[in-house]
Amino acid sequence: AGVPCHPTGTQTSQLTSDPPWTPVFLPEKVMLTCQGSGVPGLTEWYLDEQFWQHTRSDYIYVSKKHPGNNSYQCCSPGARLSPPITLSFSNDWLVLQVPVRALVEGDELLLRCRG
């Protein structure tokens, strides 16, 4: 099948999460979706900058049994590695959530309180 991740690909893979907030409560599941060039093949997933697994689909579900945070990246077939997103998992009673996507100076920041 070849290597899906192409450092010379013209497009960069885009990684999104649903829900698009962090931290999330244990043991909630988060769906990560990898969008790229649309070429058929396996999607590569990276956990804390290390190769993690291949999937035939462009999405994966992640959850944790213990509090903590991890960095996720993906590589769509024929595309470059995505920028990382960090997901935190919490067992607190109350969390102040922020968007997973990267923000730049001047962006409006929406905060969400969940209990």
From TrEMBL:
<dbReference type="GO" id="GO:0004888">
    <property type="term" value="F:transmembrane signaling receptor activity"/>
</dbReference>
<keyword id="KW-1015">Disulfide bond</keyword>
<dbReference type="InterPro" id="IPR036179">
    <property type="entry name" value="Ig-like_dom_sf"/>
</dbReference>
<dbReference type="GO" id="GO:0007166">
    <property type="term" value="P:cell surface receptor signaling pathway"/>
</dbReference>
<dbReference type="GO" id="GO:0009897">
    <property type="term" value="C:external side of plasma membrane"/>
</dbReference>
<dbReference type="InterPro" id="IPR013783">
    <property type="entry name" value="Ig-like_fold"/>
</dbReference>
<feature type="compositionally biased region" description="Polar residues">
    <location>
        <begin position="8"/>
        <end position="19"/>
    </location>
</feature>
<protein>
    <submittedName>
        <fullName>Fc receptor-like B</fullName>
    </submittedName>
</protein>
<keyword id="KW-0675">Receptor</keyword>
<dbReference type="GO" id="GO:0006955">
    <property type="term" value="P:immune response"/>
</dbReference>
<feature type="region of interest" description="Disordered">
    <location>
        <begin position="1"/>
        <end position="20"/>
    </location>
</feature>
<dbReference type="InterPro" id="IPR050488">
    <property type="entry name" value="Ig_Fc_receptor"/>
</dbReference>
<keyword id="KW-0732">Signal</keyword>
